[in-house]
Amino acid sequence: MSHGAKGEEAIWHEFVDDPEALAVEAATMKKQISGELTESEDTAPPLGRDALGMAKRRIGQGFFRSAVLAAYDEHCCVTGLSIPSLLMASHIVGWADDSAHRTNPRNGLCLNALHDRAFDRLLMYFDDDRRVRFVAHRFPNGFDSEGGNRWLLSFEGQQMREPNRFLPEPAFLARHREQALTGQAGP
Fold first, then answer.
1. What are the tens digits of pLDDT across the range 52-67?
2. Virtual torsion, Cα 136, 138, 143, 147, nearest 10 deg
């Protein structure tokens, strides 16, 4: 800072000591200059903070996950992905929808995180032959999408990798398929 102009050191210290405040101030000034903001508006972002609270825990979920992932030898039943931290023990019929089968391994599929999300959101289902199917009208651009959608949809018609035990219950797959095709979740 020996060759800096007067005031540069103060700005430097302000940035180093509180960069978030400086970023908010800069954004506010930019909006004021562009006319997007009036002087009276409060532009400070809300403070991030922690809060304690009560949460429900799914008793038996650990057993369910272990049984389902072991049944599929820790491989996604759609893609074959075998990175345990990216695998989910997906309920075919949701936890909240059927309390009698919450921990039944035949109500589970081993899916990677993305296909799990698509399955859970009723974008994907399995037909009677246990082939992957997608609900085209639920995709904003149908099946003609670009990028990541193309990869997800490339598994259309793919045969499910069958588990070495706990074959998915056909009635559960049919129930999920009906929900996906009609867009109605839950019983």
1. 888 777 776 788 899 9
2. -150
Rg over CA atoms, the chain: 25
Tokens describing residue 149: 């959608």
Tell me which DSSP letter residue 131 carries.
Answer: B
The structure tokens listed for 14 are 């302000």
Q: How far apart are CA 65 and CA 109, in angstroms?
A: 9
Cβ count within 10 A of residue 138: 14
Lookup: tokens for 3: 């060759």
The answer to whether the CB of 94 falls within 8 A of the CB of 58 is no
In the chain, where the domains are located: 7-47, 61-182
Cross-strand bridge partners of residue 132: 126
Q: Taking a C-beta distance cutoff of 8 angstroms, is the pair 135, 125 a contact?
A: yes
Give the integer Cα–Cα distance in Å for 115 and 150. 13
Looking at per-residue confidence, does 47 or 68 come out higher?
A: 68
Q: Are 130 and 173 in contact (CB under 8 A)?
A: yes
